[in-house]
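As a warm-up, study this chain.
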Amino acid sequence: MKLQTIPLQRKMEQAITLLERRFLERNELIRLLLLGIMSGENVLLIGPPGTAKSQLARAIGQLFGTEHWFDYLLTRFTTPDEIFGPVSLQQLKQDQYVRKTSGYLPTAQFAFLDEIFKANSAILNALLSILNERIYFNGREKEPVPLLFLIAASNELPDEQDQLAALYDRFLIRYEVGYLKHASSYEAMFNLPKESLPVVFSLYDAKDVQQAAKEVELPEKLVYFLYRLKQDLEEKEYEISDRRLSKIAHVWKTSAAMHGREQVSIWDTVFTPHMLWDVPEDLPVLKETFEQRFMEALKEDINSELPLRKYNQIAQRWLEKESDLHAFQFKKEIGAKMGKEAAENLRVLLEEARLEIEETARDLRARLLAWLQKEKDLAAFIREKNYLIADAEKYAVKYAHLRIEGERTLQVLQGLYRTIFDREIPGCEYDYTL
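Now compare it with the structure written out below.
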């Protein structure tokens, strides 16, 4: 199906604006939650009390209309009846153990479960199939669950994590929520909007996105990107389950569908680090590992505009011959004797060097100048790639790093030319102070 991306983008931007006015320093989390809703993946929020985890989850529910919402605070005393519905006495008289699920989690389309790890094993085990397969085992029957999205929250991770590994793995998106850090946020905190949020989305928005995502292609280069990332993490002794890798690819496809792309782009992967960690302390290392792969992929992505690898290969090729060519030029100047065949070969090679270095340097200079023009409004360019990115300037810096790499290659080419030919490359002036 063809997704109407412009109306969806307007709704997403409206929702982001509404939420950011109420939840300070939560820009990335807000976008991640909206992406999670559209992809139908479960989200786990970890953080101390008083960080607005519950309030944010309920605000997300308001954007879709609270009649579709199930909300519950779990404790070790919570019974399955409170979550899945009471046992039907009529069915029990007929020796059928069936719950009346209407109005409870098995019939909800959005849900928030607070302090999820405090629930007992009877509840947690029943949640497994709901979270993953969207199925509830009601007595002997398997009932399909209309759940589109579930947010869970906890003040802390469980100590007995091995026993909860299956449940934990079903939360693809994980985010650590902390207290406010900036003075300006504390100044604004006492004047936040109090009115209820309007309904911005319909259920069909999420369903349409998920349907469109099924038709998005994951290109081979992104499959390889994910595989190499998995290898990098394994080398650092981080394990990622096959289910988690599959779900990560699904979120990428969802992002691509939301942006009207038929194929996943590297820009659809930007939130991946929040789908990798088991404990929040691992996030910095995982982010660094991901960013290294992202930069490599970004370099490939801009290859048609700034083919840095090609320029580097050409520069490296002539660097390896620099000594021979410089020596040949010196011998010519002092009239040193050389073999006729060797001299001819070096003369041909010298002319080849001159032509290729001149052509490459001029082409690289022209592309760098064009790139500098693009950098004047790079933030807008990045938002076109992914309007969910909160900090476009962060990625603008990445582009600047790639441009600087190109400038270094241009300097190498100019230095080579001066060494070999004792003059500047004609028509290749460049202001490196820009």
